[in-house]
From TrEMBL:
UniProt xrefs under NCBIfam families: ABC_phnC
Molecular function, one GO term: ATP binding
Domain ABC transporter per the UniProt entry, residue ranges: 4-247
Keywords recorded for this protein, A-Z: ATP-binding, Cell membrane, Membrane, Nucleotide-binding, Translocase, Transport
SUPFAM superfamilies per the UniProt record, alphabetical: P-loop containing nucleoside triphosphate hydrolases (SSF52540)
InterPro entries to which the protein is assigned, alphabetical: AAA+_ATPase, ABC_transporter-like_ATP-bd, ABC_transporter-like_CS, ABC_transpr_PhnC, MetN_ABC_transporter-like, P-loop_NTPase
Protein name, per record: Phosphonate ABC transporter ATP-binding protein
Length: 262
């Protein structure tokens, strides 16, 4: 049985069908890049999986369980098991880095302890070791808003990791970063995918990065699934269908060539 199954997943906003009958199976441990131009429905698809947005039709199954039916404690457990990473990092700016990562432990710690700032030593060690894994342990005591964008996104990945999720949904995690930081953040995602077998779905506008880091690409255009395969299978024609006139920008080269073959 696949870990995650989307069956005819659809979301409408008024007259717009943001996600249109998407059917997809994802086995455990895969690193999947979701590609497509702005407005293709990538964010809406990820937000439905995490239950931040409700589907208009279709189902999401996780190990055969209907995610749409989860409520209360079961829904909170799902959101712990399915960590989300956002383009704008979503850290608490005035809190220090270590505390931001500890927020990811909230579902593992009695609420009164965290409110009182009494994080168990074991959790502090877990949080620090996650930061060290991404080479930012030395920043643990700094305020989150004193870090660069690339550092903040790695803190957000550390926070997601200490949730001990089985799947991570990353919604354009590198869209606000320069190329060097984008690579550091993609390296961090690839590292936890390989090291811990955490399944990753990452929305990514840059075709070059998607091809470099993901073993499988899923392409959306106007909410429809128009490509599903390994990066090598993405032909010029498929890239053109996905990106239209944006193709050259997405692959970072000059128009009108669509040099998807590296
Ligand atoms: N809350 C909303 N209300 C109305 N329309 C929405 C809402 N969220 C998304 N849409 C519309 O749904 C479509 C898909 O948007 P979505 O954000 O999922 O695309 P995307 O591929 O993630 O693009 P981007 O990278 O620009 O966010 C767009 O036409 C968008 O305008």
């Amino acid at each position: 049985m696949p870990m995650l199954e989307l069956q005819g997943l659809t979301r409408r906003f008024g007259a717009v069908t943001a996600v249109d009958a998407v059917t997809l199976s994802v086995p455990a441990g895969q690193m999947v890049g979701v590609i497509g131009r702005s407005g293709a429905g990538k964010s809406t698809m990820l937000r439905m999986i995490n239950r931040l947005t409700d589907p208009s039709a279709g189902r999401i199954l996780f190990h055969g369980r209907d995610v749409g039916a989860l409520q209360g404690a079961a829904l909170r457990r799902w959101r712990t098991d399915c960590a989300m990473i956002f383009q704008q990092f979503n850290l608490v700016p005035r809190l220090d880095v270590l505390t931001n990562v500890l927020v990811g432990r909230l579902n593992h710690v009695a609420p009164w302890r965290s409110l009182a700032g009494l994080w168990p030593e074991a959790d502090r060690a877990i949080a620090l070791s996650a930061l060290e894994q991404f080479d930012i342990g030395r920043l643990a005591a700094q305020r989150a808003d004193s870090l660069s964008g690339g550092q903040q996104q790695r803190v957000a990945i550390a926070r997601a990791l200490v949730q001990e999720p089985s799947i991570i949904l990353a919604d354009e995690p590198v869209a606000s970063l320069d190329p060097r930081n984008a690579r550091l953040v993609m390296d961090a995602l690839a590292d936890i995918n390989r090291r811990y077998g955490i399944t990753i779905l990452v929305n990514i506008h840059s075709l070059d990065l998607a091809r470099a880091y993901c073993e499988r690409l899923v392409g959306l255009a106007q909410g429809r699934l128009v490509f599903d395969g390994p990066p090598e299978a993405l032909t010029d024609e498929a890239a053109r269908q996905l990106y239209g006139l944006e193709a050259a920008e997405a692959v970072g080269r000059d128009a009108p060539r669509v040099p998807v073959h590296a």
